[in-house]
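Retro notes
What went well: the complex prediction finally ran end to end.
Inputs used:
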Amino acid sequence: MRQMTEIRWHGRGGQGAKTAALLLADVAFNIGMHVQGFPEYGPERMGAPITAYDRISSKEIRVHSNIYEPDFVAVVDDTLLHSVDVTKGLKEDGAILINTQLRKEQILPLLNGYKGKVYVIDARKVCMQTLGKYFPNTPMLAAMVKISEVMEKDVFLKEMEGSLQHKFARKPEVLAGNLAALRMAFEEVK
Amino acid sequence: MLKTRMSGNEAVAHAIKQINPDVMPAFPITPSTEIPQFVATMIANGEIDTEFIPVESEHSSMSAAIGSSAAGARTLTATSSCGLAFMWEVLYVAASNRLPIAMAVVNRGLTGPLNINAEHSDSMGARDSGWLQIYAENNQEVYDNFLQAYRIAEHPDVKLPIMICQDGFITSHAVENITLWDDDKMKKFVGEYEPEHYLLKEDEVMAVGPYAASGYCMEAKKAQAEAMKRAKKVILDVAKEFESITGQSYGFFEGYRLEDAEYAIVAIGSVCGTAKDAVDALREKGLRAGLLKIRVFRPFPAEEIAEALKGCRAIAIMDRSEGYNAVGGPLGAEVTAALYRAKSQAEVVNIMYGLSGRDVRVEDLEEVFDNLVKLGDGEKVYNETCPYLGLRE
């Protein structure tokens, strides 16, 4: 694993890209890492493109700038591929993860010739089969953990179970669906 | 002691929870809004018994804070940007009446253009209002500073209001690792507020804020100015006691690899973490780079800053607030004056950076150090007194 892993999230306001970034920071903290999870704020409103970031490191993190050369990029909404340069600065030994119902071959021409690894996941399918509602950040989080290898799958699932139990203490009925979404996302990343 | 992770706003709220102050009047404004939200939630959950006063403006929140503090209650509020500007008139009332109100300031630029991001123009605009001002690099520091706030402000030698500042969004909304101190230890450290004089004191009749004729007014102002000077010792004493409990060391400023530095950056706030990475990178290349991170801006530790910078050949003073005086920013003016009084021969440049949240990267600050080397060699590097860092061409 890298000494410092830097991740950039692209989404649209209201889709939970910021929440996904903060959840990833949370779970990485739980396994003893130094973390930074932060949004880049502009005039946010529902549907507008937004960016959020994660730094995960074995050492103290002091830098307080945005991330320009991320190791990994997550795109929560594939319509952003037409308007945002999502691979900008992305390291070629890194990877990009895109939530889409399109096939990888259909996505590749939209990535400005990015030479690193490209992963796709149909988060809508995962959500509908496990949660019955569309919350793309849950499967995207699991998929990002898988491709970035910031932690082992079993460790991640165990940590998430603990934090979801806490988060949904008053809504225990949604716990199983969320865990199923995380597990299924690991299999569905292509 | 608990090692956890939270945002800068959550960290301030946690300090407030541990202090459990008496009264908080507040009006929401981005990016400080979360602080009164968290406090209101803690009150609703019965975790603290602070009296929360929702008001119709920041002028009213500071006015209510003045009334509350004058009555004898430990009082706080929180604000940002235009909210702080809207308090301007009454900030002076709080300070001149010697009311130890604590205010969480989440720094954001003043309009315009209208923008919500980090800048110091809000609290720098209030730098001469008589409030103490302490700044933070990250969530840990703003938490620790808030825990020390009342001990400084309420000290009998001081009795002045205090702003505990952090950078909007960059630290206020970033989740980072933090160490929280035990409730009982912090409650004991902060202690109870027992003012000597206050409006609700039954056996003592007093007036707060009456007119003072010219024959007396200047003496009151001098007494206030002396209190600001005495705050210096109190700030260090409180920091020392805080260190004995937590192990966290604080002073007027932090010198990072400054002792043998030939080239130094002087800055305030979150950019200092980025500057530390730049300093380390340049040290590896053999450059004697250093950082002076100002924590206490009011009172201004002029002599101590000049002393700490005395070995430097060239110094960049970084301002996140325009002075609009055709010369530079407030930190530039004050540090330069401090160096002049100390008869420093160092080359000095005042650099404007990060306005309206303009991002600053490690490489940007490495470039500043590269220019300091040239400046130290007598080269003319900059075409203006106060160049802008990272300006679009």
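What we learned: The CA atoms of residues 25 and 155 of chain A lie 14 Å apart.
What to try next: split runs per interface for comparison.
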